[in-house]
Amino acid sequence: MTISQHHHDVAIAECVLPHHADPPSLDAQWARVGGGFTVHPADVEVNVERLIVSSARSAPTDARLFWVMTSWMAVHAKLVNMRQLSRRLELLRAEVSMSAEAAIASAAVGAAFAVAQQLGGVTAKAWKGMQRHCEPLIAPRPLFDIMARQPLLARVAREECLEEFAIWGLWQHQITDKRDAIRSVAGVLETAPEFRVRAIMGADLEASILDEVRRAPRTSSELADATEASRAAVHDAVESLMARGYVAKAASGYRKTIRMIPGMAIWLEQYPTLASASKNR
Q1: Are residues 143 and 21 in the same domain?
Q2: Is residue 238 part of a domain?
Q3: Last residue of a domain, one of 145, 166, 181
Q4: Are residues 161 and 210 in the same domain?
Q5: Is 177 left (phi over 0), alpha (psi -120 to 50) or beta?
Q6: Contact in structure between 194 and 166 (CB atoms under 8 Å)
Q7: Worst-scoring range by mean pLDDT, 29-43, 74-88, 130-144, 264-278?
Q8: Is residue 55 one of the residues assigned to a domain?
Q9: Which of 96, 269, 75, 85 is nearest to 181 (CA)?
Q10: Which pLDDT score is estimated for 6?
Q11: Burial class (CB in 10 A: 0-12, 13-18, 19+), 172
């Protein structure tokens, strides 16, 4: 198994899979979250932060995947938890000195952030902060393998290279804008209801906690592990959610858990339908 295949397998294994289900492809995961693929959407919840990093690893061999990713990011920056993504980018960055594949992936996702900013303008400005977690290539090369294998195409990419790619040590002379194929937030919710909390609140720690407790009650320690946040940060976020009446604390034996209040849970279950109905009025 190649390094690239290993990371691809890890990425798809991290989806929330039912027993005995086949893992979804990257294309199917993007289709679920509103990306411009015509394949059947994944039937399991998608972690978009993992999906971005996994797609960056595959970008050199799949140009369409790269352009769908960048176009989606230009439209839906507010659906991405930047704190969680930065942690995954740092894990990728830590591999750069040991893996040529990781080095290209880190540079590719840095370039993707630059392209998303260029396409999305003000709505995509959050990606600028993510670039500090990426590393440019030391030895420049074409972004896509198909160009690297053909000297004439490689020369065109190098001589006409756009700034968004040049600063990352990658050669690419044009941008393919696929925003017309990216679904709206309401469209995303039709196939990926796991984004409903983010659609309402943004993709911050409070939204991550609500996502966890909508599935089942959780202790503070469990929430800290699941959200990759400090216990102090989780405590403050839970207090804020309690003050607004979204969650409550409950004691079950020695366990003190945080649960979503029933009314909030019911409303969230209806939210994708309500969003679609509102859109059609």
Answers
A1: yes
A2: yes
A3: 181
A4: no
A5: beta
A6: no
A7: 264-278
A8: yes
A9: 75
A10: 44
A11: buried
* Shared-domain flag, residues 168 and 31: yes
Q: What is the count of structural domains for the chain?
A: 2
Beta bridge partners of 141: 170
Inside any domain, residue 49: yes
Task: Find all residues with CB under 8 Å of 127, minimum gap 6, and list them.
Answer: 73, 77, 113, 114, 116, 117, 120
Tell me the two tokens of residue 253. 């034996």
- Closest among 4, 46, 1 to 23, alpha carbons compared: 46
The pTM of this model reads 0.84
Q: What is the CATH number of the domain that holds 265?
A: 1.10.10.10
Instruction: Categorize the per-residue pLDDT at 21 as very low, low, confident or very high, splitting at 50, 70 and 90.
Output: low
Cα 52 from Cα 69, distance rounded (Å): 7
The count of other CB atoms within 10 Å of the CB of residue 216 is: 10
Q: What is the pLDDT of residues 45-57, one digit of tens each?
A: 999 999 999 999 9
Q: Name the residue range of residue 238's domain.
A: 204-275
What average pLDDT is seen over the chain?
Answer: 88
Report yes or no on 186 lying in a domain. Answer: no
